[in-house]
Sequence to fold (253 residues):
Amino acid sequence: MDVTIRVLNEAMNGITPTRNFNILYIIIDCIFLAIFLAFLIWKKRYATLIFALFGGVLYTIVDYCGFYLWAGSRTVSIDGVEQGPLNTFLVLLWMSMSYGITNFAFIWVLIAKDKYAKYWILMIISWWLIAPSIAELGGEATIETYRTTGKYHGIMGIFLVVSYLILIFLLLRAKKPFVNVITLFLIGFFVQFSWEFSLLINGIRPMNEESIRTLLVNSCLETNLGMPAIYGIYYAFNRKFNEDLSRKVAQVV
Fold:
């Protein structure tokens, strides 16, 4: 079945996040990721580095094993031809590592209140906004990915509600609040919104009748469902280790 027809059919049944790009976009993005990670190493942001790489691996597992193999909701096409498992994996590997690394680094530096957070965030958002314009030098966007969400957005919504209810329960039990839950939610929203918006205004994600709904629903849901767990990881790590992975010295009372 023609890929365009399939996209239109799926759009009738719910949110269908779609991306269109070319090979130059992949190449320059890989270069940026290498530079970004090198900057983290230079400034001894080892915890941020590890968490960012963890995010990339996690996104790859979710996207390929979850969305593609299990749900059958992810499709990759090149020059209008739907690709098999190998090429699909290679495209999703880059895409998942790219957004996993940048998203998780973005989240970590905000939660940790890194003194260089403004520089890391400027690098990431600027790249999301500018990279597509540079990639236009590579010609037509011949690679397309899309996924339907009807099979799992409901499950993700339940997971989000349960995870935040658990966090709120822990906060109500605690003698002193250990995190501002509204701030945590806003971080999750802002991170997802930033790159969803960048995709949309640059034409990587096509503008259609579902665009605004996709932007807002994904921003509220897809990163935020993991924010309580992410904070739990940060909280457990921060009790014993510094950003450079050195152990914290116990304070004598």
